[in-house]
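Form 7-S
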Amino acid sequence: MHHIAQSLPFALLGLDSDNGSEFINHHLYSYCQRCGITFTRSRPYKKNDNAHAEQKNWSVVRRLVGYDRYSSKAAFEKLHRTYSLLDQHTNFFQPVMKLQHKTRHGAKVHKLYNTAKTLYRKLLERQGLTPDQQERLAKSCGHLNPLALLRQIDSSLEKLWALADHDRQHMPSVTVTFDTTSTRDCNSVDKSGLCLYTLRTWPPAGTSTIE
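Output:
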């Protein structure tokens, strides 16, 4: 947490987490008290309290890194390197839109979003940064090449996936359905006669197998 706070271009004033023990513990609470950080948590079983964080957990973490388990020091270092690259690419080069409001017209829902902008541009427009902070961010952005950054991310992900633990009992199960007339290799058959298979890995990790 201290490393994250030091890397932010502004002061960290508050932290709102879920109810996992990785957040709700004496060490993090004491750190927030020492640093004057307001520490709050979401309601139990209410994921929408942290809707934006949950969305990024899919679009940035799971969609790219995958669902594999990593336990070695080498994997930790490579994961840290991968997240550092994704941090730069997401904040400086990925435009995002925010839903302003939505209206229903019969069976159709009309959604209105604001103008797509990168998080870097949004931060500058808030005018909460000092001139020195703005200059440091501008230099960081100016030294980045988005295409080169993508190649670095791809290379780092390939090396990271090679370090994944391959203990199948820890891999999440995902059930998919195939319309087939033969059920000889199926795990089970549903009421409509469709064959159900179980995937023990997730496709983004590049190691999906069918049992």
